[in-house]
Amino acid sequence: MLIANILASQERFFMERNRLMSNSLKTGLDILAENDFQCLKGCRIGLVANQSSITSDFRYSFDLLVKSKKVNLAAIFSPEHGRFGSEQDMVPVKDQRFDPGKNRPERQKKPAGKKKSADTPVPVISLYGKTGRSLIPDKKAMESLDALVFDVQDVGARYYTFIYTMSFCMEACAKHGKTMFILDRPNPINGINLEGPVLKKSFSSFVGRFPIPVRHGMTVGELAFLFNVEFGIGCELRIIKMKGWKRRMWFDETGLPWIAPSPNMPTLDTATLYPGTCLLEGTNLSEGRGTTKPFEYIGAPWIDPERFTKALKEEKLPGVVFRPIRFQPKFQKWKDEACGGVHIAVTDRRCFKPFLTGVAILSAALKLYPGQFQWRQEPYEFVDDRLAIDLLAGSDRLRRQLESGTSLKRIESSWQKELKSFAATRKKYLLYPY
Known about the structure:
Elements: H1 2-22, H2 28-34, E1 44-49, H3 61-67, E2 72-78, E3 96-99, E4 104-107, E5 122-126, H4 139-143, E6 147-151, H5 162-176, E7 179-183, E8 195-198, E9 213-215, H6 220-230, E10 236-240, H7 268-277, E11 297-300, H8 305-313, E12 320-327, E13 339-346, H9 354-368, H10 388-393, H11 397-403, H12 408-413, H13 416-426
Parallel strand pairs: 1-2, 1-6, 2-5, 6-7, 7-10
Antiparallel strand pairs: 3-4, 3-5, 8-9, 11-13, 12-13
Helix pairs in contact: 5-6, 7-9
């Protein structure tokens, strides 16, 4: 009887989940699958995807495409972290192959033939290797394709590298005369709020290729539209829009499942903080990698948690509280060392300013620990001639402001004019209502 009740309860749960999902937002992939991939009929395609490329009912795009009789999935391109997001940041990923019969990745041994069955292995080409050249699909890979299809979940911050993988793929399509399809997905931290400085072209890198602000308030489809026109990529671009998404929505209001798009982006809470706490990658402070709260825990062995918390509370930042903590990362910065720091908790995401909060953390660390706090000196995302903090901030202005003791109010005001200019440009490329 107990087992029967459990099974009945599970059946009711899945029925209710399916009912809710049938009324929820539909991603570009959902729309494409519903139409049986009709717009890709007869094409040899390359799919740019990772573990976040799933339908609302948890089906992987590469599984659907390899089984489709309408489409020939000729190659899969994996962005940073690999096809299943198993590699940490800045770790080179090797080419593999996707074996549908075994449904597991294997290291590529030889190119697949031109004719494929549903069980024929598909090459998985890494777009994140040991050099900057690996970020760009090469001529050999592109020549055998009719189109590229991009379907990866973004998190709404300029630093997140997937949007630049998309841009490199768009450029490859323009160069080789192929069509670029973007399967659109929500901006998880909403499509309204903008924050932070606009990148200067001389500080372009894989954590910021184009002059956009840190928090851009756009979907990947909208960004592709903007990149294609404003920055002269000029590829043949097709955007498969979502159905039911509105700009005010946060991810937990969409009805979609959250699939961590990278190893240290486990929750929406992480994504909400990321536009600010990613700045810590440009320092010797731990950004919480190696803990259960990446980008939510920050600290270092020499930080006094209570003193640091007090300094941050005095800034009276909106929508956030700081809790003094001690933690011990299990990998990356300060591995296996006891750190003092803070847990950052968002109390009101409507007024929370993630980038300003990240700046406040840097400012407090500089003032309280001038002898221990340091800017990262090692090469960062294939760049070795500029500091990581400058690449992340989009210029050296923020670093110079912090080093000179500029107030948070003046720092925030310094990017308002350029932010207003971007907002005016951005309006032309918005595809969804408020």
